[in-house]
Design a protein that fits this description.
Layout lengths: L1 H6 L27 H12 L2 H9 L5 H9 L3 H39 L13 H22 L3 H14 L14 H19 L4 H17 L2 H21 L4 H21 L13 H11 L4 H14 L10 H8 L1
């Protein structure tokens, strides 16, 4: 136990030391003490994710209909374009709605983790919530990867907003308690929020970063959450390097490992890339390059996530060796 505590010390200088954490995140289940909150958060944050990803994968751009409506304005062309973007608009409303559930659910999860102690090194204290959080991170990576591959979705939504501003259409159904003016204002306000949400290349990760960092800052829980993230990273790293598993399992741990590093980098004042960080980023990058069996594209996606979503990567204190590995 002494070695574990020392290895998780945020200012430990042994850059090659990785804490030995024998915790199987993928197969963990909730303890009896956390079962109630686990079930609540699972229903709120994990259960919807498969449906959201399936819907996103079926996304069909409305680019051609929109071009026709702009180049050759007519009622028919506008109707065709509007009907083409409606499935996308409804889908984006669901995505944004899920992001608001993250805003509600993640603070509940973090509060339970740090409720009885200022340390969360031992993942066995909350096995179910740790797995649940890992499943959220896995979803976040998958969602944003699809988003990056579909830049036309913003063009589709821009056409929807322009049509709204002309006062011609609506996707919100009126009711007897809401005036037409209030209905238009509500829809326009929601459209603004959705537009800001999808403006980021990685909107779900941005959402999780903002929620987590704000909660940590407001409740002064840097030590508690960074130690927990370090333990999650270490469990993923150890599993990837010491346990033979399927390609699907490897990919799960790789994604969770990468986003854990990114979150740590945003929360710890010195970041994940400094020489004194308890996270061995250099060996993690090497693991990504050697463990990935799907080919260069998946490796590139994982490294790009670190490259473009980290906070301290370009700091002067970041070793050149790490910068070179990320730049590959």
């Amino acid at each position: 136990m002494g070695q574990l505590l020392a290895s998780l010390n945020p200012r430990n200088n042994n850059s090659d030391l990785v804490p030995e954490i024998k915790f199987d995140i993928e197969n963990a289940g909730p303890s009896s003490e956390e079962l109630g909150i686990y079930n609540e958060l699972y229903t709120l944050l994990v259960q919807p994710t498969s449906g959201l990803l399936a819907a996103f994968k079926e996304y069909k751009p409305a680019s051609e209909h929109i071009r026709n409506a702009i180049a050759t304005p007519s009622v028919e062309n506008e109707d065709l374009a509007w009907n083409a973007i409606l499935p996308t608009v409804n889908m984006l409303r669901e995505f944004y709605g899920y992001s608001t559930e993250l805003d509600r659910g993640i603070p509940i999860l973090l509060e339970v983790l740090c409720k009885d102690s200022d340390t969360t090194k031992d993942l066995d204290r909350h096995p179910g919530l740790t797995k649940l959080f890992a499943e959220i991170l896995d979803f976040v990576f998958e969602f944003d990867n699809i988003k990056i591959g579909n830049p036309t979705i913003q063009n589709d939504f821009s056409f929807y907003r322009r049509t709204l501003q002309k006062g011609r259409r609506s996707v919100i159904q009126p009711n007897n308690d809401t005036s037409d003016l209030r209905l238009a204002m509500n829809e326009d306000d929601l459209a603004n929020h959705i537009s800001l949400f999808i403006a980021y290349p990685t909107p779900m990760l941005k959402c999780v970063i903002d929620i987590t960092t704000n909660y940590v800052k407001n409740n002064q829980l840097v030590k508690c959450i960074t130690e927990w993230l370090t333990s999650i990273w270490a469990a993923c790293f150890q599993t990837l390097n010491k346990k033979k598993s399927s390609q699907q399992t490897d990919n799960f741990y790789l994604k969770v490992m990468v986003i854990s590093i990114i979150l740590y980098d945003h929360i710890d004042p010195l970041g994940a890339f400094s020489k004194n960080s308890p996270i061995n980023v250099k060996n993690s990058l090497k693991t990504i390059q050697t463990m990935n069996r799907q080919g260069q594209s998946t490796t590139s996606n994982l490294i790009s996530a670190l490259k473009y979503n980290s906070k301290h990567l370009n700091d002067d204190s970041t070793p050149k060796g790490i910068k070179n590995l990320v730049a590959i």
